[in-house]
Amino acid sequence: MCNFLKVLFRWESGGVKESKEDWKSEYLSLRLFGSNMCSRDAPRPSSSSRASFLAFFEGWLGRQQAFLDELIHMEDDDGDNGSEHLAQEMLSHYGDYYEEKAKIMREDIFLVLCPPWLTSFERAFLWVAGFKPSLVFRLLEASISDMISEQVEQLKELKSTATREEREVEEEMATVQERVGSPELMDLARQVGQLVNGQVSDFNDAMKDLKQAMTNVVQRADHLRRFVVLRVVGILSRKQTIKFLIAAAKFQLWVRAWGLQKDGQGESGGSTTNSYQAN
């Protein structure tokens, strides 16, 4: 699926025109859209957008490790030692990620759907270009054991809301998938290299609409992710928030470190990825 979209997007931008056999091969791969969207073997696009976000992401992960170290240092401190301020800085740190992600989405939605800066292990956790919101509740269960009944009820209600929203996002993504494989788009795709005049305009319009639909789904998923995290933090106490943020950072950095080890990636991590200590 990733390859198919790449071919479409490259052609729309005036790139290389593929053979009819290539189109048939990519068309058959549509069935893998949901389960193998970001295949490890899929060619990775080379662009300034990718390089720019990779540089940001590596720096962002380095700051993530620094925040984690500080949070762990004050985890067992009962006094008001600035942990609340640090927690807010950590949330702003996550906000920075979503701001950069929004920028690259406007340039190339495909890069966000199949992020080449992630390892294959990290991509296995992707749900609509990010973490699945319900993962937050698993982290809560694993890291916090002193919640009062009122918090439990609030989180139960939030989880129900998140689960319902997840289903709606998945349904919206399924609709986009159907559009990718629509007869109209396939007919135009099979004629790439032979389109003339109005057909070229129709193809470009179809691709523009498709990319906007993908962008809308990812934006909705990102909104849900941020909503769930902020609502959780609003329910937790200060100390519980610190524990939750530690668990979330440890999990992300562990997945990153394990993914790099599994893929044997030394070149993409540099000194930053080699310094992860999320265990």
From TrEMBL:
Lineage: Eukaryota, Viridiplantae, Streptophyta, Embryophyta, Tracheophyta
Coiled coil: 148-179
PANTHER family named in the record: DOG1 DOMAIN-CONTAINING PROTEIN (PTHR46354), PROTEIN DOG1-LIKE 4 (PTHR46354:SF13)
Protein name: DOG1 domain-containing protein
GO molecular function, one term: sequence-specific DNA binding
GO biological process, one term: DNA-templated transcription
Keyword Coiled coil in record: yes
Keywords on record: Coiled coil
Database matches in InterPro entries: Seed_Dev/Stress_Resp_Reg, TGA_domain
DOG1 domain boundaries: 50-265
Species this protein is from: Carnegiea gigantea
Keyword Ribosomal protein included in the entry's annotation: no
